[in-house]
Amino acid sequence: MLARRLIPCLDVRDGKVVKGVQFRNHEIIGEIVPLAQAYAEQGADELVFYDITASSDGRVVDKSWVRRIAEVIDIPFCVAGGIKSVADAGLILEMGADKISVNSPALARPELISELEHNFGQQCVVVGIDSFFDKATGQYQVYQFTGDEHRTQKTSWLTLDWVKQVQQLGAGEIVLNCMNQDGVRQGYDIAQLKAVRASCSVPLIASGGAGAKAHFADVFKQADVDGALAASVFHKGVIAIPDLKQYLLAQQLEIRP
Amino acid sequence: MSLVIVDTGCANISSVYCAFKRLGVEAKVSRDLGEIKNAAKLLLPGVGAARQAMSNLQQRDLIDTLKAAPQPLLGICLGMQLLTDHSEEGDVACLGILPGEVKRMQVGKLRLPHMGWNTLTTTDAGQQHPLLAGIGAQDYVYFVHSFAVAPSAITLASCDYGQRFAAVIGQGNKFGAQFHPERSGKVGALLLQNFLSLKAD
């Protein structure tokens, strides 16, 4: 049976791992490579590295750390941030990343997704979606440039429409970042993830809101996601991955021990 | 021990290279016919689509050399699929080194690509085989694919995802792994180590 994946997410800014609350006020957590190695050893099923400054700064950053991660860890990892072209993605994959994830650049130019799929195969192409529940309209809406609070802006896309669109363009996996829940550890946005799950025939990864072991069990059981991504609970030692895996196994979930 | 990773122009070459380096083996990544012919062992990596990969091999004039290679050879993921007779992905003839047809997976309501950690079930032949020494039934390995080869007489381990498919195949000294041993933690490293330990004949 295919196991549900637990995915620590390492936000990278200027070569360090950082973490913010609701995408703001970032603090430094530590160095990239030792953290990646520690998570792999603890049983993480996959790692995601988000270069959170790249898209909003309009610059291409030094990604030599990708190669250093590929050298030490023996589980899959995905790199996101500022990938705007086939050439950008090719470089990251060549350095040893297994997948690349696109977000703001795909909103600016959706055909990027098809170009990546055509060149590297669907399995390499992850689309990250930052979705915010707007209480005024009662709608989930897609945001871009969320790495910089001053430049974060709402797009014209409703989340479910964009989810369908990126699959048609060739996305192989979707990571849904539920912005209202990000960093506040109140649980994943089950209602939204369920709605997206119903429109998503590729693997779906939940992101934003994990605060307790029960939140992981809830999101797997109720929203049927393929993986759950989390940052602060892992970085701050609130939840240890081996404990979490034991807990989820006891809940009869399919987990790689 | 000289190990050559055939430079197919595909994307996972450096992960495979690094995986061997962690085992203490400095592999050579090469598309040079002489180097490939002189290698003690060959590794055929692969990520991407079958038609493109076969056309890369053709452009690099590698097809005849690989078909005739006497050394132990391990194909990984798409590299395993390329060892078979034919792939439905792009309707392309493959190398025909191992018998088999690559078909799009039929998984019902499950999601494709089949992406993540899934369990191996070793066949009777697989349980005896040195390539899978120390790898138990129900060990988890990492898969990413939408196409697969059906189980057959040359299957050493299978996996289930909506359908049963071949996860490891082998005949003589030619082998294929549908999963990514370079990204499958300790179990994957063991398979690569076992491949390195096979007698190079």
UniProtKB/TrEMBL annotation, chain A:
Catalytic residues in the record: 11, 130
CDD domains: HisF
Annotated catalysed reactions: 5-[(5-phospho-1-deoxy-D-ribulos-1-ylimino)methylamino]-1-(5-phospho-beta-D-ribosyl)imidazole-4-carboxamide + L-glutamine = D-erythro-1-(imidazol-4-yl)glycerol 3-phosphate + 5-amino-1-(5-phospho-beta-D-ribosyl)imidazole-4-carboxamide + L-glutamate + H(+)
UniProt KW keywords: Amino-acid biosynthesis, Cytoplasm, Histidine biosynthesis, Lyase
InterPro entries for this protein: Aldolase_TIM, His_biosynth, HisF, IGPS_HisA/HisF, RibuloseP-bd_barrel
Major location category of this protein: cytoplasm
Top-level taxonomic group: Bacteria
Pathway assignment: Amino-acid biosynthesis; L-histidine biosynthesis; L-histidine from 5-phospho-alpha-D-ribose 1-diphosphate: step 5/9
Enzyme class: lyase
Pfam families given in the database record: His_biosynth
Subcellular location: Cytoplasm
GO MF annotation terms: lyase activity
Entry keyword annotation includes Cytoplasm: yes
EC annotation from Swiss-Prot or TrEMBL: 4.3.2.10
Role: IGPS catalyzes the conversion of PRFAR and glutamine to IGP, AICAR and glutamate. The HisF subunit catalyzes the cyclization activity that produces IGP and AICAR from PRFAR using the ammonia provided by the HisH subunit.
PANTHER family referenced in this protein's UniProt entry, alphabetically: IMIDAZOLE GLYCEROL PHOSPHATE SYNTHASE HISHF, IMIDAZOLE GLYCEROL PHOSPHATE SYNTHASE SUBUNIT HISF/H IGP SYNTHASE SUBUNIT HISF/H
Subunit structure: Heterodimer of HisH and HisF.
HAMAP family in alphabetical order: HisF (MF_01013)
Record-stated family: Belongs to the HisA/HisF family.
Name of this protein: Imidazole glycerol phosphate synthase subunit HisF
From TrEMBL, chain B:
Reactions mediated catalytically: 5-[(5-phospho-1-deoxy-D-ribulos-1-ylimino)methylamino]-1-(5-phospho-beta-D-ribosyl)imidazole-4-carboxamide + L-glutamine = D-erythro-1-(imidazol-4-yl)glycerol 3-phosphate + 5-amino-1-(5-phospho-beta-D-ribosyl)imidazole-4-carboxamide + L-glutamate + H(+); L-glutamine + H2O = L-glutamate + NH4(+)
Cellular compartment(s): Cytoplasm
Catalytic residues as annotated in Swiss-Prot or TrEMBL: 77 (nucleophile), 180, 182
Enzyme Commission designation: 4.3.2.10, 3.5.1.2
InterPro entries in UniProt: Class_I_gatase-like, GATASE, Imidazole-glycPsynth_HisH
GO molecular function: lyase activity
Protein's job: IGPS catalyzes the conversion of PRFAR and glutamine to IGP, AICAR and glutamate. The HisH subunit catalyzes the hydrolysis of glutamine to glutamate and ammonia as part of the synthesis of IGP and AICAR. The resulting ammonia molecule is channeled to the active site of HisF.
HAMAP family: HisH
Protein name: Imidazole glycerol phosphate synthase subunit HisH
Species of the source: Rheinheimera marina
Chain's gene name: hisH
